[in-house]
Amino acid sequence: MNSKRIGFAVAAAAMFGFSGAAYAECTTDIAKDDLTDAQVVELYECIKSELREGYTAQGDERATAYQSWGAAFTVPGGIGNHGSRFLTTFVNDTGYLEYVRFKDEGAKMPVGTVIAKESFNVNKKGKVKKGPLFFMEKVAAGEADEYGNWVYSALHVKGKVMKLKQSFCHNCHGNYEDQDALGYPEEDYRITVFSN
After folding, report:
1. Which residues, listed in sequence order, are joined to residue 77 by a DSSP beta bridge?
2. Residue 125: what are its φ and ψ, rounded to 5°?
């Protein structure tokens, strides 16, 4: 960590109520449900490098690629889904501009769209816990028709491919049929690209 970043971390720790040692260890004494948006962002910044290093540990190309994709969020959100973890959402160039329209009806993502969601949690002791990296990939008609032409996958925190049942993921995502199975970031936490 360079000196500029260390200075930022110390200032952020003071601003958001973390002690220097607690911030360095990615912990907080504030209950998960009581964290402010700014505090969630600080915890994410604290763990982000470690998350990404773990995801790439087994050489999965997507784990490196998504880090340069467009972000669709301003604050990690999504509590209630994916094991009540905080989620960040990134979309590749193929689907980014369509995704960030956040259509409630008539959404149709182009084939080749890949969406990545980092995840983390805060346990009862206030420690930030790394979570899986989730992917959704839009495939051509006939490849996964029963799942809306989406293929779901995930990587463990150390980069190992997780075993997932497609039906398990689609049982939730299928509830968003008018949105092409997209469970968008919470409305207050969506990046603004279009002003409609």
Report:
1. 87
2. -90, 0
| pLDDT tens string 7-61 | 333 334 334 443 333 344 789 999 998 999 999 999 999 999 999 999 999 999 9
Q: What type of residue is 111?
A: V
Of 32, 56, 54, the closest CA to residue 43 belongs to 32
Whether pTM exceeds 0.70: yes
First to last CA, the chain: 40
User: Under CATH, which number does the domain 3-189 receive?
Assistant: 3.50.70
Q: What is the pLDDT of residue 28?
A: 92
DSSP label at 163? P
H/E element holding 173?
helix 166-173
Token digits of residue 182: 């997209």
In this structure, of 82-86, 126-130, 151-155, the range with the lowest mean pLDDT score is 82-86
CB half-sphere exposure, 90, CA atoms < 13 A: 17
Task: Classify residue 161 by its DSSP letter.
Answer: B
**85 within 8 A of 119, measured Cβ to Cβ:** yes
Domain residue ranges of the chain, discontinuous segments joined by + = 3-189
Cβ distance 88 to 134 under 8 Å? no
Specify the DSSP class assigned to residue 54: H
**Contact (CB, 8 A) for 158 and 58:** yes
